[in-house]
Amino acid sequence: MKIPSSLIYLFKLSQMRTAKADKEHEMTQQSKPTPGTQYSVQYAISLWAIAEQAYTDGNNWIHIHEFNLQVLQPQLGDNPNPQQALSPVLVLYIPIYTADVGWH
To answer: What is the spatial distance between Cα 19 and Cα 74, in angstroms, rounded to a whole number?
Structure first.
């Protein structure tokens, strides 16, 4: 019995979708930025997105930028765009905020 080519196509399409979903799940399960630690950029992600993950507020991207100027300056220049995707080879320090000391 020969399997119709349309069924083969649907099966392969299903496999591709499953592989894509697995990759997306893997990307979301990678280490999340945590204040007070080093964060290795694993895929193209913006400072805004990192700040949202670390602090639940993307507006705090500026603090990550300030603490990592030497690393980010070559890529972002003097006028950084918080939505610009970063290279997935960067290692950033995610600063922590405490009321008694501020950002550190």
So the answer is: 35
